[in-house]
Design goal:
Elements: E1 19-22, H1 26-36, E2 38-44, E3 51-56, E4 59-64, H2 70-83, E5 88-97, E6 107-115, H3 135-148, E7 152-159, H4 170-175, E8 181-183, H5 186-196, E9 199-209, E10 214-215, H6 218-235
Parallel strand pairs: 1-4, 1-5, 5-9, 6-7, 7-8
Antiparallel strand pairs: 2-3, 3-4, 5-8, 6-9, 9-10
């Protein structure tokens, strides 16, 4: 196990729990810690990427910002898996739906993460790798959603490197392959977890429907995010 703190995480090894919930926004990590966790302590603020550890119903949990895009999430999840001995990371974020059957406020369970990124190239694989979630975590998320009366939709998502795409038809092509929603981080998380022999899952609250011109209000985004957090904390 490498020396900690790392260049990007200022916590000592024992300050990071075995389960990490990872929003992109560090201020969202702060909100989660202060709203849902007991005895929450900020254990790292390097580069203002806030990381908190606390308790939820007797479980020790860390909440860590991961930033935007696969290069950022790739760094933080690699260090958490390899240097802090984290066993599982659950990404919690928002996404735009590409599917007519997925509506605003639904929680998408990312079974697989297709991508337009070259992140997998570093592994030198003799083919195309399919990044997937941990099955037990995904099943638990769906079952928990059903128990709480929260609509979940499980399937393939897109992790894109491009937010402003010159190819205006790109998302339509992905939608034609059954992609449920688009985000920017899960594929790197899933690949890092696979390489480290650890568990990972991406949960997404649908905040936008670009093909339908729909988006949640600020208030609805907050309540939808809370539904997703109830699932994530229950399965953590």
């Amino acid at each position: 196990m490498a020396q900690t703190p790392t260049p990007h995480i200022g916590a000592e090894r024992e300050q990071i729990a075995g389960t990490v919930l990872m929003p992109g926004d560090p201020l969202r990590a702060k909100f989660i810690a202060e709203t849902f966790l007991e005895k929450a302590e900020c254990v790292s603020s390097v580069r203002n990427m806030l990381i908190y550890t606390g308790d939820y119903q007797g479980k020790r949990i860390t909440v860590a910002g991961g930033g935007m895009g696969m290069p950022s999430v790739g760094i933080y999840t690699y260090e958490l898996f390899h240097f802090y001995d984290v066993r599982q990371i659950i990404r919690i974020g928002t996404a735009g739906t590409l599917n007519d059957k997925v509506n605003l406020r639904d929680v998408v369970v990312g079974i697989g993460a297709s991508t337009d990124s070259s992140y997998a190239g570093q592994f030198g694989l003799p083919g195309t790798y399919a990044p997937v979630a941990d099955f037990d975590l995904a099943r638990a998320a769906v079952e928990t959603g059903e128990r709480f009366g929260i609509k979940t939709v499980a399937g393939n998502i897109l992790s894109s490197d491009i937010f402003y795409n010159e190819d205006q038809g790109a998302l339509k092509k992905w939608a034609g392959m059954g992609i449920l929603a688009v985000e920017m981080e899960a594929a790197a998380l899933y690949m890092n977890a696979a390489r480290a022999g650890r568990r990972a899952l991406c949960l997404l609250t649908v905040s936008d429907a670009p093909f339908r011109g729909e988006s949640l209000s600020v208030e609805d985004r907050q309540s939808g995010f809370t539904d997703m957090m109830r699932i994530a904390l229950e399965i953590a």
